[in-house]
Every structure is written in C-alpha cells, then in structure tokens.
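Consider this pair:
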Amino acid sequence: MSVIPNSVDNIFTFVLTNGTFNIIAEYGVMAVAMKLTAGTATFIGSLKLGSQSSTAIPLAVNDPITISQNQAIDVLTIDATAGTVQIICRRA
C-alpha cells in the first residue's frame, strides 16, 4: 500500500493551493473533509450510474463538506486550480 504524503498514523492533513489532488483506493482513505478557504474549487467522483456520469460539484467558501464510506474511496478528484482547500483524510 502506498503511503499518502505527509500522513501521520491514520490522519492526513494537507492544504491544496492552485492544483488538483486525487484520492484513489490504494490510499485506503475512508473519509475526507474539505473546506474551501479562498478562490474557487470543485470535487468530482468517477462513478457512472447508468448513462449518467459524475459531474463536478463546487465547494463554497468556509462551508466544509465530508464524504465517508465503509470502504476505501476510489477516485475522488479535488480541483483547486484557482483556490485553496484544506483537506483532512482518515484511513482505515
């Protein structure tokens, strides 16, 4: 298993500025919290339901969102190419 950069035990913290961050199943992330602190940013999953593909959802400044599930999150992309997002992840 790959280790998430800058992780300590099972909690990972990161400030994403003007870039993208991908969470894949190999990281073992079971929950992620995101908070946009400046600019604009979106997040998007990769799941397709029937003929409907996932679409990007914008983050709102200072309005945190948490995504969690009972297995590793596979392919969640946070796009902050024009903003800053605080990210906290929990591994199993």
Summary: The beta strands are 7-8, 11-23, 29-45, 48-49, 52-53, 57-58, 65-68, 76-91. The radius of gyration is 13 Å.
